[in-house]
Amino acid sequence: xxxxxxxxxxxxxxxxxxxxxxxxxxxxxxxxxxxxxxxxxxxxxxxxxxxxxxxxxxxxxxxxxxxxxxxxxxxxxxxxxxxxxxxxxxxxxxxxxxxxxxxxxxxxxxxxxxxxxxxxxxxxxxxxxxxxxxxxxxxxxxxxxxxxxxxxxxxxxxxxxxxxxxxxxxxxxxxxxxxxxxxxxxxxxxxxxxxxxxxxxxxxxxxxxxxx
Length: 212
Description:
mainly alpha; Hypothetical protein af1432; HD/PDEase_dom
């Protein structure tokens, strides 16, 4: 079901899908580094693959806007975790995936959204996903920004330690960056056929292709 929903993202917006694909790899790597089992890390990668599912309900005029968003547009954007979580609930997926999607924009200091959770109130899965998500945003080309280098992104992440990010998780991620010179994945349009999403071996293809 999650891979079918990932296909719907790919069909709606290839840029969001490619972002989600990279975030899934970063989140899986970080989870494994933090001691999660292969299965647990795989589940988090699947959650990451659909973490922006709610954006499929937002118009391109907002998603691709190069100027600053208006207050109304930003409020629409900030509803995407709720929309995504509701879609997952409708398909009766496990609560683990729902929580990761719903809370991936919460901040360690309680100033995130949609629930303003703080510190350990935020599910551990979402705290990992937040770091992976922001790292990819920083290092990717967007309509409103140029990509940062790995070193520049590293410094921006460290500046958010204890405010945006769980300090312990962030420190682990930064160390992972330091010991993995080619950590950042290349930004490109995925050439995997849509039908491959439903093939039994797609998940392994997804990880192998994203790690190259």
